[in-house]
Amino acid sequence: MNDPVDLRKPHPASILPPQYEALCPPPQLLPGENIDHYQALQAAIFRDLDPRSAVEWLLAIDVAELSWEMQRYRVLRHRLLSTYRQKAVEMTLRRVDLAGIAPDFQDVAEIYTINNALDWQLDSTATLDIEARLRSHGFDQHAISLEVYVQAREILSLFESLLNGAQLRRLMLLKEINNLRRSMMADGAEAARSRKLTGT
Questions:
Q1: Assuming Cys at both sites, which of 2, 77, 105, 176 could form a disulfide with 159, CB separation 3.0 to 4.6 Å?
Q2: What is the maximum alpha-carbon separation in the chain?
Q3: How far from chain centre, in Å, is Cα 175?
Q4: What CA–CA distances, in Å, run from 43 to 34, 128, 191, 196?
Q5: Strand, helix or coil at 59?
C-alpha cells in the first residue's frame, strides 16, 4: 500500500474507475505546471488511499487536489525567495556603495547600485565579483538570506497560512476517510452478528 512512487515513470492518465470519472474535474493547472506530475501525484494518492466507494473517491480526489496545491505553494514560495534575493543584494549593495556618498551623487550612485543588482542576477561573472565584494564587507550568503526574509516576511506569512490551511484541510479529509471506513467496518460486523444470531 505504501510502495515508493517514481514520479519520473509514465503513469496512466487516471486510475479512477470509469463509474467515478464524473466525480473528478479536470485539473486546473497554472502555466509551467506539468500534467504528468499532477497525474503521478494523483495516482500515488489514489493507490495509497485505495478508495472503495463514491464518497471515499470524492475525499481522495480532494486529498490529491490539496496535495497538489501544497506543492504549488512551495514552488511559488521558492520562486518568490529567488526574486527577493535580487532585492536583498540591491539593499546590501546600497549599504556598501552608498555609504559616505555626497548628496549630489546619491541619485547616480543609486542607479549604479540598481544596475549592479541586475548584473548580479544576469551575469555569472558579475555575480562572483559582487558576492566577493559583499563578503569583503562582512555580508555573506547568510546575511543576504536574512535580508531576503526580512523583505519578504509579509508575503511569506501569506504562503505559510496557505500551506497550513491546505495541510489542515488535508488532515481533516484523511481523518474523515478513516472514520468512514471504521463506521463501515462496524456496520459490517453488526450485520454479521445479526446474521449469526438469526441463523441466516
A1: 77
A2: 101
A3: 22
A4: 14, 44, 33, 40
A5: helix
Residue 200's CB: how many other CB atoms inside 10 A? Answer: 6
Written as nine digits, the cell of 20 is 467515478
Q: Is 66 exposed, middle or buried (0-12, 13-18, 19+ CB in 10 A)?
A: buried
Cα distances (Å, whole numbers) of residue 2 to 5, 77, 93, 171, 189: 9, 29, 50, 17, 27
Cell 489514489 locates to: 46
Q: What is the pLDDT along the chain (200 residues), one digit of tens a residue?
A: 444 444 444 444 458 888 888 899 899 999 999 999 999 999 999 999 999 999 999 999 999 999 999 999 999 999 999 889 999 999 999 988 888 888 888 888 889 899 999 999 899 999 999 999 999 999 999 999 999 999 999 999 999 999 999 999 999 999 999 999 999 888 777 777 877 777 66
Evaluate whether 58 touches 23 at the Cβ level (below 8 Å): yes
For residue 176, how many other CB atoms are within 10 A of its CB?
15
Its pTM stands at 0.75
